[in-house]
Design a protein that fits this description.
The complex is a heterotrimer of chains A (305), B (391) and C (285). With 305 residues, chain A is an all-alpha fold. Chain A contains 14 helices and two strands. Chain A has one domain. Chain C has a single domain, classed as ABC transporter involved in vitamin B12 uptake, BtuC, CATH 1.10.3470. Chain C contains ten helices and two strands. Classes of the chains: A mainly alpha (305), B alpha/beta (391), C mainly alpha (285).
Chain lengths: 305, 391, 285
């Protein structure tokens, strides 16, 4: 249970995020809260990707789940209110995942990745063409709880991360972890071992997509506006995959650390370097792979022996 | 006595000049709109230099990059508000990003001087916000200006059929329904086809247009599509009498390409525009940056900061409400013509700077862009049909 | 009927460049085993090389072709030596992140150096068109198609006749047991990765004439190349050309015959790809 050994660290970071709005950062307070919002959200997305990746399914559909959740929640929020809309958004994403998952069960590795990418592109086009989505012009989204509570988006985002972390920890602690790992390493062997490969894969994809859909819904309520190219962006799917690799795959701590470091690093680089900051960002990704093959958590692991 | 008064005025001026006016600038310096964003920033910095050199106000710019991405723009804007503590913000170039800023803007309440964001969805988002100054025309202005040209083509040149190629993002698709309807009202037959910007593949659609035999090939897309459309129209044997485009910017070096000859387009400004302010701007720009810009966002940024400096000068105060008041009553010559604020056509926002009057039509003629319509600004007659038809 | 034939012709012409770019990707994937997200950036370099030589030396892009081949080969080889070789044994996902980082770095370096502007070249033959009866044939797309075909043929000869080529094919057919000495495998990898980059570089020059040069010109082609390679079957070099043909045809047919097809091209293509992948997987099992 290596991953679980980092439990105190995970707890500490969660507590820190919960208290962030009340910590004395002076003038930087509001800025850090805004950055914190996106850190939480994209970290949750990354965790949800990792949850799926643990079965060996390389998803490029997380942008699509995110978009499904965002659009459903955005469309439903004016009638149903914030929380029911978010819930239904997550369920829509989950339904999408079940459709994708059940037809791609036999695809592995890069084939699954490309198929999920194709799924994502098709859905984006649908969002662009369907009559009720606002099409290419976009969809305005109301703020959560009619804007009554300024910290609402932050804590919604925190809630999504909390859920993602809980799911990930559960998957790491329970026998589910072994089933996932066996499925990842060899489906044939896993079957022999009595693992219900199909169920494990579908459940992982479903859980991951629920979190991603939830994250999408909260995103729309922060940006107040959705467009197909933004909500279903391939870039977001790629970010969801970059963070876990950067932080450390198949763990809870990895995506958590990766998300916090990478998302805030990008914000910081953009503020201080301005032009060409992405050159440095790219170089950092390369250096991490070259020198920390197990991601950032590799450092922790080594120190502990 | 005169000397004393002059001295006192100078003294007052100096005292005022000691208090700098902090201005936040939030523009896309990376991402999809980076070309326009950088041009705008150049214009803004040039105007700031000029205003500071004149000595009547002291402007201090705090520049942040919105990355053409809501997730990056929102924190960057918050930083301007809370860390840099600016009361005045220039920005809002891409519509989607500007929409995302509507929440934080209402929360912090700065004087918001908007440089782009033509989508009227943005207008709805800022309805009722008292310190919203929108300089750029709205999309319905753009449509109106283009339609005026089409009406002229129909009446004077007998053009009857338009084939429209529009990119399927917000830029190309926002006004397409209105365009079609209005063109048909003018008596045009219209065929419209969407495409994906940057894919560079038009042969199939253009081949299909051939049967329709349009008088005008009208594309609403980006700079990346300009050359592929010009070449591929020829390659499939499509012979429109006019190729007309409306991208936010044109490719660098396109004017030197013989294929650009006789292609027409709409813009708000060209470096060759013959008004005194424009000439001054081009000269100053060349002096500071060593080159001439073709992007109309550069004089737009320049105009915004100029107007702000003038308003600040007039009130002699750094208070955003008083500056807004001065801006509202301002009449100022700019490279685009006279700037003054009035309520928008829809009545949703109170301070709209420019309207459809700043748009004009140009044509690539022998290696440079020349205004051809409307008559008041035309320096050359429109070549209709163009050489792509005459071949 | 005429429209159909012209449409098919358009599709065939476009498939050449697709095949060229995708073959490069298939080489790095099939032989070296690397999912190279930075493949499109090699293409972008070729396009900029062509633009810069044209703008500042007045050089015809035709002359840039060989230069771009060599330059991209060198860049590819250096990339292999410096970045890919250290991670050859790393997990697939790590390799992907590395090439993704490289892609971001190169794209933004270009952005820093040249700006985000779209740039175009203007050789005299850019829009020259042959008309064969009722059909039209752009000289540049036709030339690019022929050149792509020629390069792919030469590659085929190289792969089937030369020692290195045979070694490369052996590796691509069975990456686990190539039966090669370590040093030799290393050389094969180097060559394959360099060649992959070189193919993209050449395609970049062609695209600078047909489309434009900009820091992001490679992205669309990377995406489509991945689709083609997946359609062909990973590592299957021979399948690339037919797969490219299928993609190009699908695009041409959809945008010619479907109302509003221009906006649906990608969706239909990806739908076809999706069904093909899924269908094949279910049939196999």
């Amino acid at each position: 249970m290596k991953g679980f050994g980092h439990f105190p660290l995970i707890l500490l970071s969660l507590v820190l995020f919960a208290l962030l709005p009340f910590l004395p950062f002076g003038v930087w307070q509001a800025f850090l809260l805004d950055v914190g919002f996106f850190v939480l959200l994209f970290t949750a997305l990354a965790l949800s990707w990792d949850l799926v990746a643990r079965t060996g399914q390389l998803s490029l559909a997380h942008g699509a789940f995110f978009g499904l959740g965002a659009y459903s929640a955005g469309l439903l929020a004016p009638q149903l209110g914030t929380l029911p809309a978010l819930l239904l958004g997550a369920l829509t994403a989950g339904a999408g995942a079940l459709v994708l998952g059940s037809v791609t069960l036999r695809l592995h590795g890069l084939y699954f990745a490309i198929a999920s990418l194709a799924f994502s592109e098709v859905l984006r086009t649908l969002a662009l063409k369907l009559p009720f989505t606002g099409g290419p012009i976009g969809l305005p989204v109301p703020p959560p709880f009619a804007g009554a509570w300024p910290l609402a988006t932050y804590y919604l985002s925190f809630g999504v991360l909390l859920l993602a972390t809980a799911l990930s920890l559960w998957a790491e602690r329970s026998p589910f972890r072994l089933a996932q790992a066996a499925t990842r390493q060899s489906e044939a062997v896993a079957r022999v071992l009595g693992v219900r490969v199909v169920q494990v894969k579908l459940w992982s994809l479903l859980l991951g997509s629920l979190v991603a859909g939830l994250a999408g819904g909260v995103y729309g309520m922060k940006t107040l506006f959705l467009s197909p190219y933004d909500a279903f962006s391939l870039g977001r799917a790629v970010e969801a995959l970059v963070i876990p690799i950067f932080g450390g795959l198949y763990t809870t701590l990895g995506p958590l650390v990766g998300g916090v470091v990478l998302v805030s690093l990008e914000q910081a680089l953009r503020l201080w370097i301005k032009e060409g900051y992405l050159v440095v960002y790219g170089a950092i990704l390369i250096l991490v792979i070259l020198f920390l093959p197990r991601g950032l958590v590799g450092i922790l692991g080594r120190r502990r022996g | 006595m005169g000397k004393v008064v002059g001295f006192l005025v100078l003294l007052a001026g100096l005292a005022w000049a000691q208090v700098p006016l902090k201005v936040g600038v939030i523009l896309p310096l990376s991402g999809a709109s980076a070309v326009s964003g950088k041009a705008a920033l150049n214009g803004i910095q040039l105007a700031a230099d000029e205003a500071n050199a004149a000595g009547k106000v002291r402007l201090e710019l705090v520049v942040v990059d919105d990355g053409t991405d809501p997730a990056k723009a929102v924190p960057a804007f918050t930083k301007l508000m809370t860390v840099d503590k600016v009361d005045i913000v220039i920005g809002g170039l891409a519509s989607g990003v500007t929409f995302a800023l509507s929440g934080p803007v209402k929360q912090y309440g700065p004087l918001f001087l908007v440089i782009g964001a033509a989508s009227s969805v943005v207008e709805q988002a800022f309805e009722g916000y008292p310190l919203f100054f929108h300089y750029h025309p709205w999309d319905y202005h753009n449509v109106a200006a283009a339609l005026q040209f089409f009406q002229y083509l129909n009446r004077e040149h007998g053009a009857k059929k338009v084939a429209i190629l529009y990119e399927d993002g917000p830029f190309g698709s926002a006004g397409i329904g209105v365009y079609k309807q209005q063109l048909e009202k003018l008596g045009y037959q219209v065929q419209a086809e969407p495409f994906k910007a940057g894919s560079g593949q038009f042969t199939a659609i253009l081949t299909r247009f051939r049967a329709f035999a349009p008088d005008i090939l009208y594309w609403i897309g980006y700079d990346v599509d300009a050359l592929p459309i010009a070449t591929q129209a020829r390659q499939v044997g499509l012979r429109p009498k006019l190729i007309y485009g409306a991208p936010p910017s044109w490719p660098i070096g396109f004017e030197k390409n013989p294929l650009s000859n006789d292609i027409a387009g709409m813009t708000a400004w060209l470096p060759t525009v013959a008004n005194a302010e424009s000439r001054r701007f081009v000269e100053a720009y060349r002096k500071k940056y060593g080159e001439v810009t073709e992007e109309y966002m550069a004089p737009m940024g320049y105009t915004i900061l100029k107007s702000l400096a003038l308003a600040a000068e007039k009130t002699g105060s750094a208070d955003k409400n008083r500056i807004a008041e001065a801006l509202a009553g301002l009449k100022m010559p700019t490279p685009f013509g006279l700037l003054s604020f009035k309520p928008s056509d829809t009545g949703r926002t109170k301070y709209q700077g420019f309207g459809s009057e700043i748009w004009f039509q140009f044509q690539y003629l022998q290696g440079s862009r020349r205004p051809v319509f409307p008559k008041e600004v035309a320096t050359r007659p429109l070549r209709y049909p163009g050489e792509y038809y005459l071949r | 009927m005429e429209l159909l034939l012209q449409t098919l012709l358009n599709g065939i012409l476009m498939s050449g460049i697709y095949a060229l770019v995708a073959t490069g990707l298939a080489l790095s994937l099939g032989v070296v085993g690397i999912v190279n997200f930075a493949h499109g950036e090699f293409l972008m370099m070729g396009a900029f090389l062509s633009y810069l030589l044209f703008a500042f030396r007045g050089m015809d892009p035709l002359l840039s072709l060989g230069l771009a081949f060599l330059a991209a080969f060198v860049v590819g080889a250096l990339t292999y030596q410096g970045l890919i070789r250290p991670v050859l044994r790393a997990a697939e996902l790590n390799q992907m992140l590395l090439t993704f980082g490289l892609s971001i770095l190169l794209q933004n370096l270009a952005l820093l150096l040249f700006g985000a502007d779209t740039r175009v070249v203007a050789p005299p033959y850019q829009a020259t068109t042959l008309s064969l009866g009722p059909f039209f044939l752009g000289v540049v797309p036709f030339g690019a198609f022929l050149l792509s075909l020629a390069i792919l043929l030469m590659l085929q000869v190289f792969l089937t006749r030369s020692r290195f080529g045979l070694a490369m094919r052996a590796v691509s057919q069975n990456r686990l047991a190539p039966g090669l000495l370590g040093i030799e495998a290393d050389k094969v990898y180097l060559l394959a990765f360099g060649l992959a980059a070189a193919l993209a570089g050449v395609a970049g020059v062609m695209l600078s004439v047909m489309l434009y040069a900009s820091p992001t010109v490679g992205f669309v082609f990377t995406l489509k190349s991945f689709a083609i390679v997946a359609l062909a079957g990973l590592g299957n070099l021979k399948g690339v050309v037919p797969a490219a043909l299928v993609l190009a045809m699908a695009e041409a047919l959809v945008s010619t015959y479907l109302p509003g097809g221009g906006g649906l091209v990608e969706a239909v293509f990806f739908l076809v790809l999706f069904l093909a992948l899924v269908g094949r997987a279910w049939r196999k099992a």
